[in-house]
Design a protein that fits this description.
This protein is mainly alpha-helical. It contains 14 helices and 2 strands.
Length: 357
């Protein structure tokens, strides 16, 4: 079935070029086209994880999964749409740790009564998320304390300094998780010797992962271009579009792979994908966008996120830290994460557009 859905990929590209005014049709077709591509990305990630371990496999999936979001954010950055960029960053962080991880724990918990993962690795990733939340809170608090006019001159150098610090910390975290303490993230899963189960080589898996990422980036850009006019027809606000609609569709690859891994009782891989992707967005993608805005955007972008977005990240990080700290998961924990995401989604859905600015 998934192979036949690949036909929607050229169809989405064709509609974008020959019928660009059919926004709703482009939105639906490109959304369906992402599904088989996400499936191929998930298969490649699983085979890489069999060679490299659950931690590195999850890291590679998070990296390639965030490539599409980074490309889309760079396009918005070039256009000076900084509010959209910030909303999509927060949406990606919140979506991965609440929606992706919650759906994975629910799906895995329905098949397995209780699942185990490395508590030390989970706590390490949750601590990085807390660090990222603090880094997002302080510029917003600074702006609120000194006033918008006074803060304008100081926010850019402050944001640049924070961006450099976060990138250094991210590099150190990679050394910690992939080299010096990789055993904390490797998990205990061993691939079953199934009849007809052929393990892909590292080269083949990496090639499929790369090609799927390029295709997802292309289709995602088409899809995001159709979201704005389509959402306007349904009266959705800008912040809801950025935090929830764009983030959910942009994280399609992570959704598919994390849920599939959890159903196969590979919670270390699922956790590395979901939480690892949020960590990467918070302390790598966001700082990179701040630094790139110095050269690409019409003006530098600061790290002072709106108070409502910062609060959403903080609440999501708090509940995730509690759930990921004990090394076990079940379907109820998945329901709890999904409930928080639903509550946030309803709040932003009914939030007037002018309040979200």
């Amino acid at each position: 079935m998934m192979k036949w859905l690949l036909l929607f990929v050229p169809l989405a590209i064709g509609l974008e070029h020959f019928a660009p005014e059919r926004h709703l049709l482009i939105f639906v077709v490109s959304g369906v086209a992402i599904l088989p591509l996400a499936g191929w990305m998930g298969r490649a990630t699983e085979h890489l994880a069999e060679h490299l371990g659950e931690g590195p496999g999850g890291f590679l999936n998070a990296t390639f999964g965030n490539a599409a979001e980074l490309i889309i954010a760079l396009a918005a950055l070039r256009a000076g749409l900084y509010d959209v960029v910030k909303a999509s960053i927060v949406g990606s962080i919140v979506g991965n740790i609440l929606l992706v991880l919650g759906a994975a724990m629910l799906a895995g918990g329905l098949r397995h009564r209780e699942q185990r993962f490395s508590a030390e690795g989970g706590r390490a990733q949750a601590t990085m998320l807390t660090l990222a939340a603090i880094a997002l809170i302080l510029p917003a608090a600074f702006k609120s304390a000194v006033g918008e006019n006074v803060a304008a001159a100081a926010l850019i150098p402050l944001s640049i300094s924070l961006a450099v610090i976060l990138l250094i910390v991210y590099a150190l975290f990679l050394i910690f998780s992939l080299f010096t303490h990789s055993a904390l993230f490797s998990g205990s899963y061993t691939a079953p010797e199934e009849e007809g189960h052929a393990k892909w080589s590292i080269g083949r898996a990496a090639l499929v992962l790369g090609l799927a990422t390029v295709a997802i980036a292309w289709i995602s850009e088409i899809l995001v271009g159709a979201i704005q006019p389509t959402a306007r027809e349904f009266g959705l606000s800008n912040v809801f579009i950025g935090v929830f609609v764009v983030a959910v569709l942009g994280n399609a690859a992570e959704h598919a792979t994390a849920i599939t891994a959890a159903m196969k009782n590979r919670m270390d891989l699922s956790l590395s994908i979901a939480i690892g992707s949020s960590v990467q967005v918070a302390i790598f993608v966001a700082p990179v966008l701040v630094l790139v805005s110095l050269f690409l955007g019409p003006a530098p972008m600061d790290m002072a996120f709106p108070a409502g977005l910062v609060l959403s990240v903080l609440l999501a990080v708090l509940i995730t830290g509690q759930i990921a700290g004990d090394g076990r998961s079940d379907w109820l924990k998945g329901v709890q994460l999904l409930t928080i995401y639903l509550v946030l989604g309803l709040t932003y859905f009914f939030l007037p557009d002018m309040v979200s600015q």
